[in-house]
Amino acid sequence: MLGTIVNCAAIICGSLAGKLIGNHFPARTAESIMKILGICTFFIGISGAMNGADTLLVIISLVIGTFLGETLDLDGRVIRFGDNLQKAFQRGQNGSTSLGEGFVNASLLFCIGSMAIMGSLDSGLRGDHSILFNKSLLDMTYALLYSSSMGIGVMLSAISVFIYQGALTFLAGLLSPYLTDAIITNVCCAGSLMIVGIGFNILGLTKLRIMNFMPAILIVIPLTVFFG
Question: Fewest CB within 10 angstroms: 27, 48, 152, 226, which?
Fold first, then answer.
């Protein structure tokens, strides 16, 4: 669990530093930072989605997963949870991003991706934390940048990272025989497309309920096993 703990600590430190720095940014600068973060997030998503996944299975998984997510209103539930917590905090300094939105966007960005999956498996199976240590540096940088404009909700994403990566690390021995290259590729592709959606939202082009897409991550695994 050492790699995951370091990762969470890096996110918290980066978020606190970003919040302190962000308080000194004028509104115009904060808006520009948000726009460039949206472009960078879009690029990360596109890069991750172009890795040879089974496109048809990923599309089917996203359609089924989104149907389930909308039915359960996962995005609304998480946003309401974050906004209830917000009563104990001040709004983001630019007033445009709620604590819940910052929490959701950062959680998805930090949890979805091959480094989170492979790093957690290496940590659990071989005690090799190098991938998660490298991920920690990246996440700390993004946490600093995101929290400077999106507020303290970004720091709460450390909870999501701890639960997600901690569970993968703990279950590594059981999961590793079943996580084939095809499964990991398709999962990362579906997750990367969600990151593209986050980029669109940050740029203000859409108001996608990204958390409602999340069941696709689970749906794509059995589809890949049976049809991949």
Answer: 226
Q: What is the pLDDT of residues 88-129, one digit of tens each?
A: 554 444 444 567 777 888 888 888 766 788 788 888 877 889
Helices (H), 50-152: 55-72, 74-85, 99-111, 114-126, 130-150
For residues 148 and 46, give the distance between their C-alpha atoms in angstroms, rounded to a whole number.
Answer: 24
The CA distance from 217 to 66, in Å, is 10
**CA 165/CA 151 separation, integer angstroms:** 23
Nearest in space to 190 (alpha carbons), one of 75, 86, 94, 112:
112
Backbone angles phi, psi at 129, to 5 degrees: -100, 10
Give me the amino acid identity at 157. S
pLDDT digits (tens, 9 = 90+) for 13-55: 999 998 888 767 677 777 787 788 788 878 888 887 887 778 8
In the chain, what's the furthest Cα-to-Cα distance? 53
Q: Report the alpha-carbon distance of residue 151 to residue 94 in Å, rounded.
A: 9
Give the span between the Cα atoms of 228 and 166, in whole angstroms.
28
Residue in 21, 194, 222, 203 with CA at minimum distance from that of residue 111: 194
